[in-house]
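Fold this sequence, please.
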Amino acid sequence: MHDAPDTPSKRDAAGDGAMIEARALTRRFSGGVLAVDALSLSVRTGEVVGLLGPNGAGKSTTIRMLTGYLAPTAGSSRLAGVDVQREPVRAQRALGYLPEGSPLYAEMTPRAILRFVASVRGLRGRARTSAVDRAIARARIASVADRAVETLSKGYRRRVGLAQAIVHEPPVLILDEPTDGLDPNQKRAVRALVAELREQAAVIISTHLLEEVGTLCTRTGVIARGRLVFDGSPEQLHALDPARGTVTLTVRTTADDAPVRGERWRGLFADLAGAGAIDSEAGPEASLVRVTIRPKPDASERERTALAPLASARARERGLAIESLAVEPGRLDEVFRQLTERANATPGPERAA
């Protein structure tokens, strides 16, 4: 890493190893409108924390306070152990920031922009040239590096913005919608790059794409009404869906099996550990029956995981041929809806739009 003079590093971070810290961050706008409500968060090197939330939830305001571009009404933030409000310039030396919209100088080329940013970051001579070449390669913009930015597509502009955020190899990365406007191949490349960068950096990604949770993030924070209503792993987020672990069995029966008689199927599977509501319906063929076994609302993680193999074993014990078996992994869109609607239903101060 080619640091500028007095650049904060991991050694400057707090004793718990956090490289990004928000401590009760609060922001009120004119008229007393509350945008962020005492939000606390910490991120260590190696973590990629995805911030999710509906429009107006406070994600962008939180990021602007973390990066020092907006002063909090109360609370504080630290980057690499340096207080952002007290020492903004020193804290920002540790920061690589990709803002929403990738504002760039339209008449300049990506290479010129990166040389300029690297110079501002304190890199000179061969160190600057090496850093620029490395950022161009990592962001995969070599084919457009010497074209004017104004001639580039939205996707390429976004990648140029990402390149300027990483040119100085910062220990802290905050990326606002890093895959916005990218095609599937470009998204895959950005995800691979983030996975590489997190080995030596703490990363926050603001996104509205639920698919990014499992592909980019090691942790997820859900913001609603300016509050952090969830902070945990993607697996823990999936686990909040009460339908997760639901088993759908399609079995082949004989004419004597009375496939539409739901009580027969309830009796067959009702005693399985963790089994709740059980429904059945005729399949696409006369001899097929589709049985749905939902976990009890209070089913444990172990019971939800074991429900499918138990149901499969029970069906085979009774001589039923299993045509298909599917397990509901949990729907992030449903969990997101529940978390944010629950927060919106909670009375609170006036909110920003």
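The first strand starts at residue 18 and ends at 29. The first helix runs from residue 59 to 67.
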